[in-house]
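Cross-posted from the bioinformatics board.
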Amino acid sequence: MAVTTRLTWKEEKSLQKLLGHASLTLLYKSSVHGYSIENMLQRCTYQGSTITLIYTKNNIFGAFILGHYPKIGEKSESLDSSFCFSLQKKDNTIEIPTFPFNRVPEITANRLAFYFCDYTLFCLNTELKQIVIVYRLEDKAFTTPKRFHYLECEVFRVEGIKDDSCYVRRVTRVTQHREHLLAELRAYKPSTCLIPEIRILMLGPVGSGKSTFINSVKSVFQGHVIRQAIAGSDITSITEQYRIYSIKDGKDGISLPFMLCDSPGLEEKEEAGLCIDDISHILKGCIPDRYQLNPQKPITPSHSTFITSPSLKERIHCVAYVLDVNSVNHLPCKMVKKFKRVQKEVLHLGIAHVALLTKVDNWDEILQDDFLNMNRSMTYESQIMHVSKMLNIPISNILMVGNYASECELNPLKDVLILSVLRQMLRATDDFLEDLPLE
Amino acid sequence: MAVTTQLTWMQEKVLQNCFGGKQFSLLYKATIHGSSSGDLLQRCSNQGPTITVIYSETYIIGAYVQESYQQINKGSVILFSFQRTENSEFEIRRFKACTNNDVDGQRCDRNILYYGNRDLNINIYTCYISMSYNIMKEIGLPLGDICFQECEVFRCEDLLDQRKINMVTELSKSLSSDMRTYNPCRGLVHQIRILLLGPTGAGKSSFINSVKSVFRGRVTNQSVMGFDTKQFRTYSIKDGKDGNPLPFVLCDSMGLGEKEEGLCIDDIFYILKGHVPDRYQFNSIKPITPSHVNYIDCPLLKDRIHCVAFVLDANTVENLSQEMVAKIKRTRREVIKCGVVHVVLLTYVEDLHLITKADLVDPYRCMPVKFKIEAVHRELGFPLSDIFVVSNYTLEWELSLSKNFLILSSLKQMLRAADDFLEDLPPEETDGILK
């Protein structure tokens, strides 16, 4: 007999995703290696973090244990970030509700029990080949004990995850927080009825990730990677037009009340990249969507598509300065000067502004474990201080992001970061809009 | 400490290929799990075929055993060794140990693993191995006992097992179904037109044949290969032998060439906007003009190109001349100016170093594929997320599950790209349908 798992590929994929794209190595299979606890422990101790799966006729129950498998009679102590779960088939997808342990599983010669406080969540009895369930994961409720005969028990080593409780806590809670953020942003309304749609302008050097950020935001709302704002790198800017992108909520969904505006990159040289005078016109709302910008010749009021009296809603309401985090500390003097000139104009026009640092390596650690605030990571502190001084932006409005630049699939941790950043931009905008003089 | 192997991806891959396309699951690691044969047997018995790997300072030595680890077993044994080296080129030397029924294939006794007729002895307690001199010469080892630092044992499983086959079958069915029912951007056009652009010989026409083959159900060769394409061609794809046309069309064009050869850059604008008719004969030096008899004066949205796929041969992509690189970049700029969304297809991925048929099921996990994708990103500037790999039908008569899957997956990405393009069209070009 081959030693292979009973999991279907789809079930395995769902489990891997639950743990942040871990990989699983089958170590123990009861029908091959023997049903006793001793048989199991022989193969599963000192293997690092593990997943134990128990198959009944209609269900799969499991336990994730962070760190090494405990031994028989091992004394109880605090167990962080381990949890039980079950695989639930719903329509065409597999859902995996979880519930945390906070005690080391108790192992005797024929019994393996998992606890939350003094409650047994579930218990495996190898002598009787029974599993006793006391907590119904799908209903999130305790129940009278239910006994099932189990068909198989498998234990896998979990690889490719960070072996610390913060990481595990984060990846297991991220999906819930993602849904929360999506709901909040779908329900967003600008704080003043004078402006039905917020426009956020991406400004930054060539190759800093402006178009990629726009694609990343669109991707989160679409549910798959999108490539509408043309991204890539070259010596000069890929983007040559001024673009206004609306964000649709799902395929064929309605547009959300904020738009992301893309512009050509800034360049050191005076007559290259986005022209300073054009920036002023963009900020005031005089430049229409798709206008072809010319680095040497700014738009003039006599141009046929120039918008001479833009309304409030046509203006830019927030500017996001987009900078590659790895080049922030090495910006050429002329580029810094350009930024300061732009910032002066932004302040003069009373426009909200944030900084967005891109190409962040440890993007999965930027937010705190509860996803509510940014970690002040020591890794990028000097970059943050540098930008704060250069542009006079408060630290809480210096945002960090990892765009969808190299993945073909969405990652909920990255989704949450992108959505959090977007929400901060909208909050910064609301702060400024409330300060609008009545005109 | 994490329980992970010391083998690099390349080393593991060479070993896997050497033993017939296996995948390895690490079961035992001496420095973590203990240095007795009892510790080893606890974890490795009854696991099916295994491979035991020994790491000395300069060599990796091991044994593949067909039967499960037990106290004694009689399965066949293959001994091997290779040098630990920084470069990716190394050679595995193999020796098939005695399979005579009178001699045990593998035996464990008091912390020593014996193979064959004492051909190889591994003492996991003292960390020494000894071997008969003849075999040491055979597999390229220096004579004498060898001290080692680590011993790892892996279970060997088929890389493409039934479970994975079932997965790919199911996914391919789902993808095929999505293609058949695909409705471009709420019916803005009936068919998406995908233009293939790339150097001559990169596999554009071959890709078209491969797509046709997938939906035909057998390998077909309608688009002539082996000759430079000189015409603009639009190929409709039928669903099955006499089925309905699918909602996408593949457009083939002259290949990009050096200097004045190949597709004229000025023609690209006309192709993208839909002015060039099917079967138009390209001229490398002279683009089509509005006065040409077949020029399409007022193309509709359905006549335009909705997605471009740059087709590049994965095996030669790092050896493109500076001139070709510049031409591809110029071509891309033309595409960008017209607002057309585009992707990259890397073809002939099956010919990359160490890639086997079983890898095609998930090629993005293979280092050689990653290197090529990164090379395209670095040299040509395309985003990593827009680069896909395919394997065309070139020599086969019958369809392959993994090739079908790759082709369908890349098509899906192109249809999504086309949706992105259509959704972003200015209102005056969509007659207000989208508003």
